[in-house]
Amino acid sequence: MPFPWTTISVVTPASAAAPITNWMEGSTPALFTRDGSGVGQGAILNEDGSLNSPANRAKRGSTITLFGTGGGLTDPGFADGQIAGAAAPLRLQPIVTIGNKDAPVAYAGAAPGQVNRMMQLNVTVPEDAPAGPSVPILIHSGFLRSRS
């Protein structure tokens, strides 16, 4: 079973709560935003390394780099707080859509040189992706997807 159930119980010196059973997910993807609010412009680099924005849009067919968290375990894994020294792919490979169009994923994994659990996705902007100042990007991983 890829995502097992687990039993959780909270115990303090004064009391113990009744155990509950909860489903465990392998990943809960979310993209970083430029202002850290979780909504609006994503933390995205264009193919030339410049910051993506409505005034500096990615070209169709180019590769962009997305940053986020919640991608799940990598192979090889890293300890909490450890810096990822090299590329390490995610165990659950995500599906990315840009404007509801499938965007081929060249790399999905640890962001080299960044703290463990920071996810980097290198994806190609589909040739038929919609143009505009605000195009939704979704990451589907396992049973979950990021917010648009």
Task: Describe the protein.
With 148 residues, the protein is mainly β. The chain has no helices and eleven strands. The chain has strands spanning 5-8, 20-23, 30-31, 44-45, 63-69, 95-98, 101-103, 105-110, 118-124, 137-141, 144-145. Strands 3, 4, 5, 8 and 9 form a five-stranded antiparallel beta sheet that branches. Strands 7-6-10-11 form a four-stranded antiparallel beta sheet, with no helix packed on it. Strand 6 and strand 7 form a beta hairpin.
Question: What is the structure about, briefly put?
Answer:
The chain has strands spanning 5-8, 20-23, 30-31, 44-45, 63-69, 95-98, 101-103, 105-110, 118-124, 137-141, 144-145. By secondary structure, the chain is an all-beta fold.
Measured as a percent range, the helix fraction is under 10%
What's the gyration radius in Å? 18 Å
Instruction: Identify the overall geometry.
Output: elongated
By DSSP (H or I, 4+ residues per run), the number of helices equals: 0
Q: Roughly how many Å apart are the termini?
A: 29 Å
* Main sheet: strands, sense, barrel: 5 strands, antiparallel
Provide the succession of SSEs: EEEEEEEEEEE
Q: Could you list the spans in which at least 5 consecutive residues all have pLDDT below 50?
A: none
Mean pLDDT: 88
- The helix/strand class is mainly beta
What percent strand?
25-35%
| Number of beta strands | 11
